[in-house]
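Journal club side-thread
Mid-discussion, someone asked how the predicted structure for our own chain would compare to the paper's figures. Pasting it here so we can look after the session.
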Amino acid sequence: MARKVAYRKRRQNRFGLFLVYIVVVMLLIVVAFNSVELMAKKEAYRQKELALEEQIAAEEERAREIEEFEKYTHTKKYIEEVARDKLGLVYEGEILFKNEN
């Protein structure tokens, strides 16, 4: 009878160990799939970050161009160009030639 009880306990221990192994393997599989998914998300976010950094650089360049244009609009040369093009003004004694198109 003692042998039967010992055999039954060993068998229960093996079955319990088998269940523990199954649970551990399942957990490892879940963790592996989640890590792959997280790496894919990480790569997607990295690509998005690079695109946003490029966009920021382009906007900073545009802001510099606008500042330069603003400085240029305060110069005498710009005022003369606008007066000639928009208003048709010329300096005194200057001859203006126009195309007949």
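Post-session note: Residues 2-85 form one domain.
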